Fold this sequence. Notes:
- The chain has a single domain, classed as 3-Layer(aba) Sandwich (Rossmann fold), CATH 3.40.50.720.
- Helix content is 41%, strand content 14%.
- It contains eight helices and seven strands, in the order E-H-E-H-E-H-E-H-E-H-E-H-H-H-E.
- Residues 18-19, 21-25, 44-45, 70-72, 97-100, 120, 153, 155, 198, 200-201, 203-206 line the site of nicotinamide-adenine-dinucleotide.
Amino acid sequence: MSEPAIRPLLAGRRALVTGASSGIGFAVARTLAEAGAAVAVNYHSSREPAEKLVEEIRAAGGKAVAIGADVSEEAEAVRLVNETVAEFGGLDLLVSNSGIQKDAKLGEMTLKDWQAVIAVNLTGQFLCCREAVRAFRAGPDRPGHARASIVCMSSVHEIIPWAGHVNYAASKGGIHMMMQTLAQELAPERIRVNAVAPGAIRTPINKEAWGTDEALEKLLRLIPYGRIGEPADVARAVTWLLSDEAEYVTGTTLFVDGGMSLYPGFVDNG
Ligand code: NAD
């Protein structure tokens, strides 16, 4: 077979995707592999879909490994990155994607549920970024290009307040400032750090928002583009941000939300 006319965007790069056994992380891991990256597919509780994805990537001629770890535990985040480096000989790309929701109005929200969401969504991303950057520093210089790149999975709720979800909104607001601070701190080392902020994407985390016709109709009122997002919409944006096509882009949040953050309530209002 002759060489493809366009070199895959991530050929030769080594990536870790957290929370990749379902939803957005699963689609991101698959898309990064299609773009030529070797991919570590992290899972938490569901091993089987991660193993299946790894088989699929290997069958297509790619490189992949499934690694179980709880990103909110320091020792596990350290092991996750170490095992990725041991498997691929280094690490160049991190998609810090794992996230959970435990929703309640303020009066009913337990400290346990507040802490659980912050632990996975914010502390877990901090731990994975820290360990990934330690691994990036051992990697080769790439004259003219970023040495390494991180995408933090944020949400439109890094800017849109969300009643009944204070733990989740606070975690994503925290991701925004963590991402920008790390981008500022790491730019001199040519490590790019960006975020992707999905709107409503069809995944298990928000099934109650799209699982019935009534719920979907209500949801669509918040989306000017007129359809729910799919994991592949997010995966393409992540792939671009990680690639050298996005050289010189750092500290930015890319909203992938069909216009959800454009104050859709104002469309026929004044
Ligand atoms: P999902 O529930 O399918 O995926 C979440 C993933 O995180 C799962 O694979 C789960 O196993 C993993 N995870 C949970 N706890 C973990 C832990 N302790 N350690 C490691 N992994 C853990 O939902 P999703 O929609 O694909 O969510 C992925 C990310 O996208 C999350 O950060 C979420 O906040 C964000 N997001 C989703 C939407 C949406 O509409 N679906 C919108 C905005 C942001």
